[in-house]
Amino acid sequence: MYHILLILLLLFWTTTAYGQVNLSDMSPASTDSLHKCKIRYFSPGTGGKNRVWDFSKKLGSKGSSQVKFMKDSNGVVSVFKPSRILYYRTSLDTLFLIGSESQLEKREYVQEKISKKFPLEYGDSLSRHFRCKGMYCGDHPFREEGITTVRVDAEGSLVLAENDTVRNVRRVHTIDSYSICMDLDSAALDTAKLTQVIDERYEWYLPESQYPILEDFTSTTYCDMEAIGTTKHAYCNLPENQETYYITPGDENETDEQDNSFDKEPQSPDIIHYKIDIQGKTIYMTYGLDEDATITTIVANHRGMLFLSRQWTQEAGQDYSVQIDCNSLRPGVYIFYINVNGKIYSEKVKI
Q1: Do the beta carbons of residue 20 and residue 27 sit within 8 Å?
Q2: How far apart are CA 39 and CA 21, in angstroms?
Q3: Whose C-alpha in 41, 79, 167, 349 is 20 to 30 A from the C-alpha of 269?
Q4: Which helix (H) or strand (E) is 244 found in, with range?
Q5: The predicted structure's pLDDT at residue 342
Q6: 19, exposed or middle or buried, with CB in 10 Å at 0-12, 13-18, 19+?
Q7: Torsion of CA 256, 259, 263, 266, to 10 degrees
Q8: Residue 11 to residue 137: CA distance in whole angstroms
């Protein structure tokens, strides 16, 4: 009986609570909200069709917050998070980020940043440049410029608590590769004065929803193309009245991997052992794996512009090799980014 009740609640949640969060269909002056629970960071796993993601034992949470949505008479959707407000423009099928603000900074996208295109269909992908101007602490101008690449890279079923299953789920993989310039004069374009950032986000969407049920986020920051550190976060977004069915409070003394922000000695072990060799304009990586892994590689320049990205899944073993053809790139120094089950490695390579 308890299991049947959970299924009914899940169906109600999917068709009503999530159906309400429809950014493009919201009428002016309307509001909505979702509950965002911070959960332990997890490896997103491989893409592809007919995947099964088992989160029945992963949804312990140490905290939660409310996210509110509001649409004004000009069609701008404001998303209110605890520490930031995001502003979006909606078209018939696409969501664009046009600005954001917090207590410390304010951004205005002079070249809009694409967020999502609906409906989400497996295999769809798009890429678009973005550029924003901002102000930090009221008197420090900065500029961000880069590329967003969005791909619906997987579809399948989500298994939640009590083995409740949601089908026809789409997973969206988003890569933001960009540079940050804290000065607007021409001298600031020098490589050593730029900060580079590579963000990877995985989001799992229920059918007919425009807000993800699960989010998995990794952000790596570079100074002069040398990695400074990585932050990791994961969230489950639920209607508040459903939280007790799918979220369990975490142990306050439990170490949480996503709290290791900019930790130079990550707690997770190295499961990859690799060597990089540059021959001409080709990057050769030989490697071994202690465990099965999903590997993402990215090649980006000092401006944070993503040029090449690749993802594959490999079983545990030794003597593997991969070649990254960079003949389409100009000679120069690049960031070679490697993500192995959520753990980030970076090399500075000259091509």
Answers
A1: no
A2: 22
A3: 349
A4: helix 243-246
A5: 87
A6: middle
A7: 20
A8: 45
Sheet holding 343-350, edge to edge: 306-314, 293-300, 333-340, 343-350
- The C-alpha atoms of residue 245 and residue 160 are separated, in whole angstroms, by 9
pLDDT along the chain (351 residues), means of 10: 29 34 54 81 87 81 82 86 91 89 94 89 92 90 93 91 84 94 61 83 86 91 90 82 63 44 52 95 96 93 84 92 93 94 92 89
pLDDT given at position 164: 81
- Please report, for residues 1, 221, 314, 323, the alpha-carbon distance to residue 261 in angstroms, rounded to integers and kept in the order given: 43, 11, 27, 31
d(CA 321, CA 81) in angstroms, rounded, equals 43
Structure tokens that stand for 241 in this block: 């009245």
The answer to whether 287 and 275 are in contact (CB under 8 A) is: yes
User: Interior CA angle at 166 toward 27 and 50, to 5°?
Assistant: 115
Of 310, 301, 303, which is closest to residue 330 (Cα–Cα)? 301
